[in-house]
Design brief:
This protein is of the alpha+beta class. It has helices at 98-105, 179-182, 187-196, 198-201, and strands at residues 3-4, 7-18, 25-32, 35-37, 45-49, 75-77, 114-122, 133-134, 144-150, 215-218, 221-228.
Length: 231
């Protein structure tokens, strides 16, 4: 991240198949980076999440990142110097982002298996020539979102009736994540089905209590855009 010839650089990280149920209580969330190029000097970054029940893929359209609706909450991260290539420790780990994740997964239309994006940009008046450069390969040392959360008990809601008028037991064997397309459900209806019928929808394996070992989610895509800095 830097000021590039009078333009502010904005970076986005998108995580797909984000298998966290709606209304989960996220207690800790960090993104772990790996150093690509050593760098030093003070830097302060603002991190926010896209406020969407499904973050769409990044594209090459003008201002794709900057025009997205973001969370009301933000997290400030001031990473220390990155001293050596391939370092991947506490210095390369963000501050706790759980406040951002909780704001997104509490949305009515959120569902387990959706996609979540984080947007990074500069904050404050730190030296714009200072940068941090991490590896971005999807196979070799990708950024990892590490998560700890408390899920609700994994039982089907026996009193629930979906938008088609059926209880959980009548939806056994279907793909709950495609009912929006296959059966004409609204996105809210799909989210309600997955949330109320976790056994039927096969999401119980991810509804876990907080663990000493955070669940890692590799990112699916990276993008950056630039905005002209006001004079």
């Amino acid at each position: 991240l830097t000021d590039y010839y009078g333009y502010e650089e904005i970076v986005g990280l998108r995580f797909h198949n984000f298998n966290v149920p709606r209304d989960a209580i996220v207690t800790n969330a960090t993104i772990q980076f790996t150093v690509d190029t050593p760098s030093s000097g003070p830097i302060k970054l603002q991190i926010r999440a896209e406020k969407s029940e499904y973050s769409t893929q990044f594209d090459n359209s003008t201002l794709d990142l900057s025009k997205r609706l973001l969370t009301d909450s933000e997290v400030i991260w001031s990473p220390p110097d990155w001293l050596a290539v391939s370092d991947s420790g506490s210095a390369q780990r963000t501050s706790n982002l759980s406040i951002l994740v909780n704001e997104v997964v509490s949305m009515n239309n959120w569902y387990a298996g959706s996609a979540l994006s984080f947007i990074f940009r500069r904050s404050g008046t730190d030296n714009a020539t200072n940068t941090r450069t991490a590896t971005s390969g999807t196979i070799s040392d990708p950024p990892l979102l590490q998560l700890e959360y408390l899920g609700r008990p994994c039982i089907d809601n026996i009193s629930f009736v979906d938008e088609g008028g059926f209880p959980c037991t009548e939806r056994a064997g279907i793909n709950c994540f495609s009912v929006h397309f296959d059966y004409g459900f609204t996105r809210l209806g799909m989210a309600n089905l997955i949330s109320n019928c976790p056994i039927t929808c096969g999401v119980c394996s991810v509804t876990v209590t907080s663990s000493p070992t955070p669940t890692p989610f590799p990112y699916s895509s990276l993008a950056f855009t630039t905005l002209q800095v006001s004079s």
